[in-house]
């Protein structure tokens, strides 16, 4: 039985370390699935399993613990950046500007409340611990890790801020959802009416390409090339099918049209009236995309690395005998195939044309799903390496005792966002399947939470029984509720936002998946998820840097 005793007690053995982490993550994940009033903590419960294990004496080698904590944090933030990178900058367009401004307001107000509470309770709570409360109240784990790293650079020797984080976190989750409920009650919101208004707004603002048929009546278009017509109108469109003398073809830009021809057009809805008016009339009693048509349509997946990063123009579709690309599907979005649109690995290209020519284009693009199952490790580890270097760059700030650094959370996050957005343009393969991305993120955050819990177990129990644990939880409620109530009222009264968008924005501003899960129970529409994903990148970025920002302006109070 000596082997069993050694396995449980030898903190430096690989077997002991792996066993402890496996047990903590397993127990935490199982308990995290338990719902209380419809709310569960998910993977975050691994933190509390780690706290229990640490209190019971299940500890591991401190060097290994710190490595796994930091490596887990890097994995989590890096793959978040890769996921949101392609849509990060586009999220600031249109309605995303309002949502991101509200998120900026929410982050700013939570920092103001945190600093105000610190000065009010400075005799009882240190600045470092107040930051722990702050990150627990806004349920942001990567920010906790970044601030822990910043404190270590400041040679902080006080109580682990993960203790305050763990005390504030549970009530923070409940308070965020409770705030959403309060906003609903205050404004007497009818969920069905919100759904109806969302549907109407979607119809008005939709930029998803539509199809329609136009008859050539304008005598001035006789013998003109499709490319010329597109230039005359000044609106982008695709002619996917052309009916001439009873024959249906898939034309290219150099083909000519004649009076009496009928074109099947794919374009943005806002351009429909201009195209119809210029050509002549809309044909509503004909559909050229019939089963008897000699032209077929097919979805083609981009799976060849050689295609990653090239534009639609670079495909030279004129070489494919009448093949047209009418739409491109990417990460749930439908894109119009502008000639300068960059193709990415994993895109789905919707093509129309002769079957043989479409097969040739499919060979060009790849269309082999299994190839996408193989991750490109070069881009992943190159991005992590560059992120670590970027996060380690010292930024000298007057008045600071040590240079400011983005750290192991901020550096990889920024590089991953840039890599996700610009990578394909540089012909770097950044595509990972959704399941692979989710698995690596969950693994990373589980390793981080388990490490934090194991290190803070005994201090956490002492804080609850003998210390400021209850005070941390109460202070966290103020940090959670006050900013979200203000932002929710501004969103409804000033911007007249749909309630589902408000709840999604609140969930994204606090980077809180349980609130998003609650929002999804309120409506079958995807508006909450859209708002969440729109503000999440900015919120995560600001939360990770916010701890260092507070330390920057108040570092002399760190104790």
Class computed from helices, strands and strand pairing: alpha+beta
Q: Uncertain runs with pLDDT below 50, 5 residues or more?
A: none
Strands, total number: 9
Query: H/E element string?
Result: HHHHHHHHHEHEEEHEEEEEHHHHHHHH
N- and C-termini, Cα separation: 46 Å
User: Number of helical segments?
Assistant: 19
Cα Rg: 28 Å
Estimate the strand proportion.
5-15%
Could you say which overall geometry the principal axes of the C-alpha atoms support?
Answer: elongated
Oligomer: single chain
Mean of all residue-level pLDDT scores: 81
The main sheet comes to: 5 strands, antiparallel
Strand order of the largest sheet: 3-2-4-1-5
How do the helices and strands line up, and which of them pair or pack?
Layout lengths: L1 H8 L4 H19 L12 H11 L6 H27 L7 H25 L6 H11 L3 H13 L7 H26 L4 H15 L4 E7 L9 H8 L4 E7 L2 E3 L12 E6 L4 H8 E3 L13 E6 L22 E7 L2 E3 L12 E6 L1 H11 L11 H16 L14 H16 L11 H32 L3 H25 L5 H11 L3 H8 L6 H28 L5
Helix pairs in contact: 1-2, 2-3, 3-15, 4-14, 4-15, 4-19, 5-6, 5-16, 5-17, 5-19, 6-7, 6-8, 6-16, 6-19, 7-14, 7-19, 8-15, 8-16, 8-17, 13-14, 16-17, 17-18, 17-19
